[in-house]
Description:
Number of strands: 12
Oligomer: single chain
Structural class: alpha+beta
Strand order of the largest sheet: 3-4-5
Shape: globular
Strand content: 5-15%
Order of helices and strands: HHHHHHHHEEHHEHEEHEEHEEHEEE
Radius of gyration: 23 Å
Amino acid sequence: MDSLDDKDSLLVAKQAGVALARIEALRYRALSRLSKVRGGVRSVVQEVALELSLVDGFAGSLVATGVALTSRLPRTLSLMDRGKVSGFAARKVAEATAWLSDEDSLVADAALESRLPDKNSEQVRKAASYAATRADRSGAERRTAERREGRRLSMAQGDAGVASIEVVDGPVEKVTAAYQRIHREARALRNQGDTRTMDQLRADIALDLLLGGQGGVSERAEVFLYMDLTTYLGLNDDPVKMAGHGYIPAGLGRHIATGPDTVLRRIITDPLSGQVHDLGRTRYRPDAATAEFVRVRDRECRRPGCDRAAHTCELDHSIPWQFQGETNVADLVTYCRRDHRLKDEPGWIYRLDPDGSLTVTTPTGQTHTSTPPPLHEPRPDSLPF
């Protein structure tokens, strides 16, 4: 291994990942067979936990995933056999579709076959959630209501004088808005010279607010939903995208969008591609309008695989300003703070195409592309000609 250069090292790691996916597919098949032979009894989980030296919860997840892959998700299992999907990502698919009927699971599995290869686990989770929601839209509404009804606050004691508190299954719009408020107040304190880390500031502000304090500098929190007009009007039930979170059922999207403090913005899309074409507006200076358009178009950080919401990201030129980069929608993209710094590392090359696709070339010559997802499925029938 000491003789490998950077490209060969990356290639070996990638090939090892392919081999691991195939081995994990074999393990899932074996665990599924074990469960079938034993008649699906619950004690199979404890037996697997003991034999593989795993905690019960993880062992149960492996067994459940194995059963799902061999019965309801055969195409996802086939992708594992080809090294296209990891065992961890396959578990995300199994978990996201676990509430579906066998018939609907097969529909979701077929829809995912072309969407899963070469995606990271978070992208797989979102894609699987979207496919599951489309496969059973009414079921998704019921499941969402049940999960939101089960919200709770939990506390876990730790060692060395620490403990954790968590809101479990809280309404996504409130949790997202709460986090954004805390994050913005933490950023404001850092900009004022506070020496605590952002993690420390967010934790301290959250606890201060819970205990009745004022936190940092109060600022209105924002949650960004992407929903087409026909969904908003209830004419269809297409899943709705929440920036930084993923897809939610149409009914929940309409519930959030009709809230008393909601601000709606008209977005004009290309019917053939579903991509953002223009924003309806009668205000804002040109520079503010440009920034808003880019954030609406991108929705999330544009580094392939990153899902930080665009409204929390920074704008940057794909062609640096000092090299004649221009401040317009054809040259601006959103990056979270981490990936903005990565862009300036030696050997990283970024190219933005006219359609908004961003191609990133790594120091070892590998290329990865991200394209702003369409706001809706292409609708050629809506054209007037």
